Amino acid sequence: MTAVVTAHGVTKRFGDVTALDDVSFALAEHTIYGLLGRNGAGKTTLMQILTGQAFASSGNVSVFDAPPVENPAVLSKVCFVRESQRYPHVYTVRHVFRTARRLFANWDDTFAHGLAADFQLPAGRLVRRLSRGMLSALGVTVGLAARAPLTFFDEPYLGLDPAARQLFYDRLLADYAGHPRTVVLSTHLIDEVSDLVERVLLIDRGRLLLDEDADDLRGRAVAATGRAEAVDGFAAGRTELHRERLSGLVRSTILGGLGPHAKAHAQTLNVELEPLSLQQLVVRLTVPPTTTAAAGREATR
Ligand SMILES: Nc1ncnc2c1ncn2[C@@H]1O[C@H](COP(=O)(O)OP(=O)(O)OP(=O)(O)O)[C@@H](O)[C@H]1O
Hints:
This protein is an alpha/beta fold and 301 residues long.
C-alpha cells in the first residue's frame, strides 16, 4: 500500500480533555475512508491535525511524507471541507471558485460549474446570502472540483436534503472512478455512505476502535432473534454487544460472522440470524456496555 498519511501515537489534549489518545494508522492512496464515531469522539480534531490546522500534543503525523503544519507543498495537495467554513463578506459563489482555482492544482472549473448547476447554486449570489443547504452544496462542490489528492469532508453535507446528498454521493463516485484520490468522509449518516466507503476508521472517545475494510465489517456481527433460552444458548461463549426484548422474543447483537457453524447452531435452536448493517455495528460498538448487553440481559430475565 502506498500511504499518503501516517499517524503514530497521536495524542491531543485540551486541558484535561484528551480528544485523541495514542492514535496510529495509515491512509492509502486512492481509497475512500469513512471516519466514524459519536459526537465528541475526536474526528474533527484528527482532521485538523492531518490538515496542519492543529498540533498533536504528542506523536507524529506525516502527510505526503512530510509534516503538514505550515507546509505549502503538502497543503496544496490537501482539501478540507467543513460546515463552519468562513468566506470573506463580499464573496459570491463565483469568487469562491476563482480562489479555489488558485489554491488547487487539479481544480476543474467546468466540473465546478456543472456541480453548481446540479445543486442549483446561483454563481452570482453572495455566499452570506446562501441558505444552509446551499452553503453545504458550495462546500461539497469545492471539495469535489478541487480533486485534491487528499480530501477531507467533515460532515459538510448535513445541510443537504436527501436528494442533494444522493447527488453528492453519485458525483463523488463517478468522479473518483476517473480521478482516484484519497477521500475521508466524516459522517453520522453511516447507512447512506456504507456502500461508498472502502475502509472504516472508527474513533471512540479519542481511541481508534476499528481500522478495517468496510466489506469485512459488514459481516462482523449478527442479530440473533428467538426465545430467551434459545438466544441464551446461542450467545453462550460468544461476545454479546446488546440485547433487547421484542414482543415476547429476545434480539441479541453478537460479534462474529455468519459462518456455517453459527448458522447450523442457530437453526437447531430456532434462532433467526441477520447480518448487522455498518451503522448498527457502529452504534453497538460505541454505546457503553452498561446500557446494552448487561442491562438487556437483566431486562429479558
Ligand atoms: N479547542 C478545544 N478546546 C477544548 N476542547 C476541545 C476543543 N476542540 C475539541 N475539544 C474537545 O475534544 C473532543 C473531541 O472533539 P471533536 O470536535 O474532535 O469531536 P468530533 O468527533 O468531531 O465530534 P462531532 O461528531 O460532534 O462533530 C470533545 O470532547 C471536544 O469538546
